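Run Nitroreductase family protein through structure prediction, thanks.
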Amino acid sequence: MSLALDRTARTDAPILDVLAERWSTRVFDATAPIDEAALTAALEAARWAPSANNSQPWRFVVARRGSAAHAAIVDALMGFNRAWAADAGALIVFATATALDGRPLPWAAYDAGQAAAHFTVQAHASGLHTHQMGGFDRAALATAFGFDGDLAAVTVMAVGVLGDVDAAPEALRERELAPRTRRPIADSVLVDE
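Sure, done. The structure for Nitroreductase family protein is below.
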């Protein structure tokens, strides 16, 4: 049985297979090149995410393993993320414009999150695995990639080919194989009339 099947969410209501089967790995094949067609499709899905007033405030830094940009992103990662994310075939910085024509975009981070979600679902459907991270130094990324005051990193996503979980260090393997859990939907829905 494949690991992807083992990781399928047990949902309380039927959802699309691509959503139930998607999970965030920390084990990437450090030798497999990124599938360029799958990466392009994921970026295209992100491009077509909805945004307030069609402002499309998202910007992407796409850094393939072995590039200077990839190394700069790894250097900006914090804590445990630095231990595993460098193996990913690519690291993507999802950034957002915080203003447009001098006007603040208060919804921009939400819109960039939708772009990241669309990317993730398409990547999974195309055979790639992903993991989003919040543990990174935003100032370091801004310096590395010349973000001005109106551009801010929202998340960093590792993307690539699933590695051999059995060969991963024990602590990482335990995290990968731990049961997938979510709180009940009733704990998230504040009003349901």
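Residues 1-5 have pLDDT under 50 and may be disordered.
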